[in-house]
Amino acid sequence: MSLGGKCSWILATxxxxxxxxxxxxxxxxxxxxxxxxxxxxxxxxxxxxxDLVQAxxxxxxxxxxxxxxAKPVALQRFHTAAYVAALQAAELAQFVxxxxxDRHGLGTLSNPVFPEMFRRPAxxxxxxxxxxxxVLHGGIAFNPGGGQHHGLADAASGFCYFNEPVLTIKHLLDxxxxxxxxxxxxxxxxxxxxxxxxxxxxxxxxxxxESKRWPFTGALNDDAGGxxxxxxxxxxxADDGFDYVLDQLILPVIETFKPEAIxxxxxxxxxxxxxxxxxxxxxxxxxxAIAALRKITPRMIVSGGGGYNPWTVxxxxxxxxxxxxxxxxxxxLPLHAQAILKALSWNRRARPNPALFETxxxxxxxxxxxxxxxxxxxxxxxRL
Length: 384
Ligand SMILES: [Zn+2]
What we know:
The chain is globular and about 50 Å long. Helix 2 (46-55) runs antiparallel to helix 12 (335-342) and helix 6 (119-134) runs parallel beside helix 7. The protein has 14 helices and 8 strands. The chain has a single domain, classed as Histone deacetylase domain (Arginase, Chain A), CATH 3.40.800. The two termini are 26 Å apart. It has an 8-stranded parallel sheet, with helices on both faces. Strand 1, helix 2 (46-55) and strand 2 form a beta-alpha-beta unit. It is of the alpha/beta class. It binds zinc ion. The site of zinc ion has 7 residues, from loops.
C-alpha cells in the first residue's frame, strides 16, 4: 500500500497534516436548503445535528471540519462528464429539458430541481473525500451530509444526485488501499454502491434493508459476484433482530474480510418513527454497530443517509457522534438543547411524543426474532 504515491486534492492544497482522532464534518450549504416543501427532504437534518452537538459542547474546534465542495473532475471519478455538466447546468438554469429528465433523472418528483441541486450533493461528496483523507493514517470521521447510496453513474436516483459512498471508497482505493468494507444500515438497499463495486474483490459490502421496498434490489441470493451480502428483512424488524444480525452476520463477514477501512452508511430511516419504512429499530442500534465495527479497523468513515423524521434524524446522528467521539449521553437533554428539537416543525404529523424532545436515546425496542430471519442469516453465513 502506498500512501504517498497519489497526490491528495484537499491535503495538497491546504498543507494539512493528517491526524488520528475523531472528526465531525459539516457545512452551511445544508442550512435553509430544501428539496421543496412536499419532498421528504423538506426537513432540516445536518443543521439539526450540528446545532445539537454544538449545544451539548461536543464540537470543539479540533474535531470540527467544514466540508469542501468536490470539483467536477473529482465527481467524474464515478459519474459521467455529461451528467455532471447537466446537473451544473440545471442548478444554474433552475430548469431541465425533457431530454435531460429522461436521460439523467433530474427534475423528477424524487430528484427535483432546487437551488443547491449541484452544490449541496457536491459538498456531501467533498465531505466524504475529506473524511477519507482524514482517516488515511487512522481515526474516525463522521460526515452526516453523505451517504447518497442510490446515485448512478449517469443519473440521479432515489433522492441522490451524486453517490458519495462510491466516490469516497474510490478515493480510499486511489490512495493504495485494497480492502474496504461497506456496511449499509439504511432501510433501503444500497443499489448504487453495489452496482459500482460488483465483482470488485477490493470491496466487501453488507446491506440490511427492508424487503419488498424500493429499489427492490438486494435479494438474499444477490451476491454481486461474491462481494455483497444482502439481507432483506421483514417489516417489524426491531432491536433483537438488529443485534442478531450484527453479531451473526455483519461482524463475522467484516472480521473475515480484514478491511483496512470501513465505511458505515448510517441512514436512519429504519427507526420506528420514520415515515419511509416499516422497520422499527431504536436509535441505540447505530452506536452499538459502530462500537463493534471500530474494534475491527483503525480507519472508519460514518455517513448519514436516509432519515425523514426531523426529530429522530437529529437525535440519532447526535447519538452516533457521541459514540464516535466518546461523549456521555445525558438522561435528559439540557433545556437549550431541547429548544433546538422543539423549534422543529414537520408538515406530515402533529407534534411527536415529548420523549423525542427531552432525550437522545430511545427506549430499547426488543421485537424478538423470527424463524425467517434466523434462516436467512444462516444461509448467508454458509458463504463464510
Ligand atoms: Zn433509505
